Amino acid sequence: MKAVLDACVLFPTVLREILIDTAAAGLFQPAWSRRILDEWRHVATRQGAEAGAEIALLQARFPQALVEPGQGGFGLDLPDPADRHVVECALAAGAAAIITANLRDFPRGALASVGLRAIHPDEFLRDLYLRAPDPVLAAVQATEARARAAGGDMTRKELMRRARLPRLAKAIARLDTTQAAPFPWPGATPREPN
Fold first, then answer.
1. For a pLDDT cut of 90, what percent of the chain falls above it?
2. In CATH, which superfamily holds the domain spanning 2-120?
3. Where are the beta strands (DSSP E) in 116-170?
4. What Pfam family does this protein match (any one) (predicted)?
5. Residue 12: in which H helix or E strand, if any?
6. 69-94: burial string, b at 16+ Cβ within 10 Å, e else
């Protein structure tokens, strides 16, 4: 499946790293346009950060992700016509979805009319996790390790909270508890405590 990553999901480092690592694991094919990358750069600059090196690394890692949008979104009724380029990128890429935290900017009916849907990154990653838990968990763990190496001493819960991924965090916690719970073999009798 191809999915366009909107600038709002590329800018936050933790979220971007989890999404990109799941893409590298083959769970989906990311797509973006030059304008989406420029929006990321602009937001980073406004926040006093520099995104140039991160953008260059991302492009080197996924050279096939860069798409030249066409005019397929012409006449599409979006709350902000300036977001039309994201839809045009998705159409040019042959993507099924736009991963964005700004769902209100991409109404369901308008996108359905061109065969697309917008999905929040939390829901998207949770769904990927439910289908393929190991690579998504590996992406989360790799992001945790990078954060620790950079001096960010925080728990997974805090990391997921900062990335605004509560559904994914719950799904991981739920699976962790079910895997940790003992499951008796059929016909086994419970042991008496020593």
1. 73
2. 5'-nuclease (3.40.50.1010)
3. 117-119
4. PIN_3
5. none
6. beebbeebebeeeebbbbbbbbbbbe
